[in-house]
Design a protein that fits this description.
By secondary structure, the protein is an alpha/beta fold. It is built from 9 helices and 7 strands; from the N terminus they run βααααβαβαβαβαβαβ. The protein is globular and about 55 Å long.
């Protein structure tokens, strides 16, 4: 019998909702507002990161005036407008509902807690993730790849880190899960650097529809060894 999974923790942007493309747009538009046209950042500096981190990197690379906090607020405000009609990652709402029948669930995101609440409501899955297990970028001492968010998620659910399975789409998030001592599933459909991130994860899947039938029942019962598997 393989190790039992006793809780599942999900990233939000790019894992449950297809919102990461709007991150790139917000960075480009806000930089242009500040007189820096055509600006972009590598995905390693945006995916899984907080807006404070993104704003800090932007200011370092461009010399944009003002505070990092003010720039982060401007980015978040514009991004919030862009994501008003965000769509779920394929199969995500259904996976959350099925998983919740077997395991306690949490969401750990670089986005603020208010964004987690808004997206869970939009996807119709708020009832499946307890408020105490929603860990936003404004709740942690350090953002991904630091493990603090995932460790807080495990504590909120009352489980050991080693008993958690994390679903992630970013390098920063997968590194955070690994540092927390958790197993991870790399969700590939909205991600960058597929080969590199696949190597960081315990397993990978195209999206939630590609998980095998009975996945949640089997991992909760310790009957599925998914180590090294790629579900397509």
């Amino acid at each position: 019998m393989t190790a039992v999974v006793r809780a599942a923790l999900f990233d939000l942007d790019g894992t449950l909702v297809d919102s990461e493309i709007h991150t790139d747009t917000a960075i480009r538009v806000i930089a242009e507002r500040h007189g820096v046209p055509g600006f972009s950042l590598p995905h390693s500096q945006t995916r899984g990161r907080t807006w404070e981190h993104v704003a800090g990197v932007m200011r370092t690379g461009t010399g944009i005036a003002g505070s990092t906090a003010a720039l982060a607020d401007e980015l978040l405000l514009y991004w919030t407008v862009l994501t008003a009609d965000v769509t779920p990652v394929a199969g995500a709402p259904e996976a959350i509902r099925e998983a919740a029948s077997r395991l306690p669930l949490g969401v750990v995101s670089g986005s603020p807690r208010a964004v987690i609440d808004r997206f869970l409501d939009r996807l119709g899955i708020s009832d499946y993730v307890a408020p105490r297990a929603r860990i936003g970028g404004d709740d942690v001492r350090a953002s991904k790849p630091d493990p603090d968010g995932y460790l807080r998620g495990a504590r909120a659910l009352g489980v050991r880190p080693a008993d958690c399975l994390v679903f992630e789409d970013s390098q920063a998030g997968l590194l955070a899960a690994k540092a927390a001592g958790m197993r991870s599933m790399f969700v590939m459909c909205c991600a960058a650097d597929i080969p590199g991130n696949t190597l960081l994860a315990t397993a990978a899947c195209t999206d939630f529809r590609s998980l095998p039938p009975g996945f949640w029942e089997q991992v909760a019962g310790g009957r599925l060894d998914f180590t090294g598997k790629v579900f397509e």
